[in-house]
Amino acid sequence: MEIQFYKYQGTGNDFVMIDNRQGSFDKTDQSLVARLCERRMGIGADGLILLQNRTGYDFEMVYFNADGRLGSMCGNGGRCTVQFAKQLNIISDKAYFLAADGEHYASISAEGNISLKMNDVQAIECTDNFYFLNTGSPHYVAFVPDVAQFEVFQEGRSIRYNDRFQTEGTNVNFAQLPAQDEPLFVRTYERGVEDETFSCGTGVTATAIAASFKGRTSPVKIKTLGGNLEVAFNRTGETVSDIYLIGPAVLVFEGKINI
Based on the domain organization, do 34 and 103 belong to the same domain? Predict the structure, then answer.
């Protein structure tokens, strides 16, 4: 079987993109998804995304983790899917689409940045040591003094597989909180990938919201290993609305692979 694919990245968070409007891709084959995402024997990616037809929307985004399992919302993946839809001439500069966590709106600026509206956050768990919230995917956020030297893989994995999170899993974010006018440096251990990624869209969104409890005001500029993002939002108590994840999404290459 020959598969046409496109490789996209959003601040280093990379995805295999497939135009599945004809419904020919077997979504039930987890091993196929994992093989395509595998970095040595496959194309290599943090996840795989299908762009599909959906009545009432410009398109539907179906996201799979790199391990082949159906995933929850992916913010960087959402921005990449919007850019992919533009490449396929499905949209021009605005999109209305369906993802795992519901409806999303997005727009593409003249400079190529994609502003993706995320769903409202209704409840935030705040403790002395961490924050826990769902921004389309569950996220644990902790602030540390020197995130550049922090053991993200080891510490992130221990939290992801602790007694509380082992069954359902969580993404784990570590961030450094610098001066008000400087960007937050965020590093993320992602469930499904089971490793640190260069960037996580729902993760930086969660971290920006958590940082508002420490005095940061919207919009919050974010630095990741793969590039820069921005998160804008309105927060009233533990309810956050009008959340936008803003940043680039880039086509890396395209090709065909025989499976």
Answer: yes
- Judge if pTM exceeds 0.90: yes
- Tokens 């037809």 found at: 53
Overall number of domains in the chain? 2
Residue 37 annotated in active site: no
User: Cα separation of 97 and 211, whole Å?
Assistant: 29
Determine which helix (DSSP H) or strand (DSSP E) holds 159, and give its type and residue range: helix 152-160
74 flagged as catalytic: yes
pLDDT tens-digit readout, 6-63: 999 999 999 999 999 999 999 999 999 999 999 999 999 999 999 999 999 999 999 9
**Domain span at residue 224?**
124-242
Cis before 219 (ω within 30): yes
User: In CATH, what number is assigned to the domain containing residue 81?
Assistant: 3.10.310.10
What is the residue-wise DSSP string for 220-248?
EEEEETTEEEEEEEEEETTEEEEEEEEE-
Instruction: Verify that 74 and 154 share a domain, yes or no.
Output: no
